[in-house]
Amino acid sequence: MAQQIPVDPKARADDPQRDTERDDGTHAVVGDVAYRRLVLVNVVFVGDPGAGDRGWVLIDAGVMGGKGAIKSAAEARFGAGARPAAIVLTHGHFDHVGVLEDLAAEWDVPVYAHALERPYLDGSAAYPTPDPSVGGGLLGRISPLYPTKPVDVSERLLDVPEDGTVPPLPGWRWIHTPGHAPGHMSLWRQADRTLIAGDAFVTVAQESAYAVAVQEPELHGPPMYLTIDWDAARTSVRTLAALEPERVITGHGRPLQGAEMRRALQALAADFDHVAVPRQGRFVEEPLRAEDGSAYRPPR
């Protein structure tokens, strides 16, 4: 069963009072950053409330069937008909690109991602089948049923610049955090130490249906069943912990903030092999590393 680093619930970064004041279907984290949970994954909205058309950015595109929820939250938060300036992806797994093709076409927006995720976003490669033997939870055991085929947004797809900037997000930088996926990236804003970590680490036991339903705050490594390179995943978590963020929004689970969150993140980084890495498993024994191309699989 997956291990965890417990976190005091007082470290939650979402604020029910701010949610009541805005009532736009999102959960506020900090002034211009909010998120919405879609079944089992979070999408993030970056932009000031009322920013209007092209005044905001969507981070990740949720699960299949989530289009209406994303659009309604965006319109309530940013204004009627308000389209984003871009969609930025932490990575291309099925639960982060579920409605990407539809939204990108309808909104007529560019899609930014790390160059190593391009094969999974231009239709040319599929992810490997998940490993159901790790994690011990229901969502882990049924993971071979999850889609692995790529989406194709090649006409709109742009690689993030090598200089670390994110063109539609002034003040933010991308950090390559592979392990869970070859081109996984996290987003960092130094000015207020806000981190959008994607699935580099998460704040819920994503393998467990019960934990996903309850959403008790705790720190975990990346979802086990889809993590293909545990050495890289360890390095990624340690890179992010070294930033000493003030608040983190992850792809799964509640956002966390403050000294208690940093304590837990440092503990995860220090004890990663015990807490996060399965004792055995296909990708533990035979990791797939992006640098030699072995992570790529042809479409099925």
Automatic annotation (TrEMBL):
Residues 40-252 form the Metallo-beta-lactamase domain. Residues 9-26 have a biased composition (Basic and acidic residues). Residues 1-26 are annotated as: Disordered. InterPro entries: Metallo-B-lactamas, NDM-1-like, RibonucZ/Hydroxyglut_hydro. Pfam families: Lactamase_B. This is Glyoxylase, beta-lactamase superfamily II. It comes from Methylobacterium phyllostachyos. The lineage of its organism: Bacteria, Pseudomonadati, Pseudomonadota, Alphaproteobacteria, Hyphomicrobiales.
